[in-house]
Amino acid sequence: MNKSIRSTLVCSAVIFGAACAHQAMAQSNVSIYGIIDTGLVYTTNANAAGNSVVKEPGLTGSFPSRLGVKGSEDLGGGLQAMFVLEGGFAVDNGALGQGNRLFGRQSYVGLKNNYGALMLGRQVNMTYLVTAKSDVMGPNIFSISSIDSYIPNARSDNAIGYLGTFSNVTVGATYSFGRDASAAGGPSATNCAGEVAGNAQACRQVTAMLAYDNQSFGVSSSYDIMYGNAGASYGLTSSANTDQRVTLNGYAMLGSSKIGGGVIDRRTRAAEASNTDSDLYYLGFSTPLSTALVLDAEVARLSIKGSANTATLSVARLTYNLSKRTALYTSLGYMQNAGTSAIALDAGGTVGSGLNQFGVMSGIRHLF
Prior knowledge:
Radius of gyration: 24 Å
Number of helices: 3
Strand content: over 45%
Helix content: under 10%
Number of strands: 17
Largest sheet: 16 strands, antiparallel, barrel
Structural class: mainly beta
Number of domains: 1
Oligomer: single chain
């Protein structure tokens, strides 16, 4: 074999080996996942006349339905690139959720290593994450989400986010340059696009979280402030107007059972003197009755300072797990409205002013 042929083969081997090494280092992993959750719900006093209604809900059952794609790529040295594209949808009619957005639940790309994850795009913020372990009902159709529907919809557009866990401590924060450009799609959709030249505060949103967890208990706290701008919804028509939430949450494990609770303090400084101060308290427990059967129950109360309008929620849910992916469940709930309060028991539902409401939902959930 002459020298030129040997040289060519050696160079090819070196190039091929380098390419293989690069491919091995940059292995990517992409997966499709989702939840389909629906059933039938019955509620009383769904209007001022006191009529009841039976329906197939569109917003949630035990969890909101969703379809997502997520992936990661190993960049070497402990660094990974990652992305999430996740959209919500209504099982009853197939419509897209979050104001008809394709990826309304999450749409971000970022980097992560041992020091945490840095993300850019539409993402859940710290108010969404902070109650994940203390609120045993989660985004159930009857839950604290009915009282404050921002909680399961706490997302921010145009956001920079950070989340990191160090031993038992988790810290996180988001900063949004324009929290939501949509006028439809729930409480976080406030028609406040932001990114306005000459007004750096317009439609900004800042959220932060600090949490501690171990095998026996956990505590967490969060801060969330939204600024308004001209044309924004809910009275936030100026960048001087704000909607602020501060939470304190905790849980404890009693064997295989959990007890959890917290308080969410909300202060709105809006236009036309429509300022409100309120506190939402919740306390619940979750216990397995068998390897397949789980009982969750919770009570919650909304108290508005300087007002006789209050709402008290009682809810219980029984879940039977047919497998790791499929479950049947039944929820019972009761909402007691005082004064002229008109908070519906079911998320996205209706109730007559000052009327109490009873409801029951049975459904099926499948994860993939």
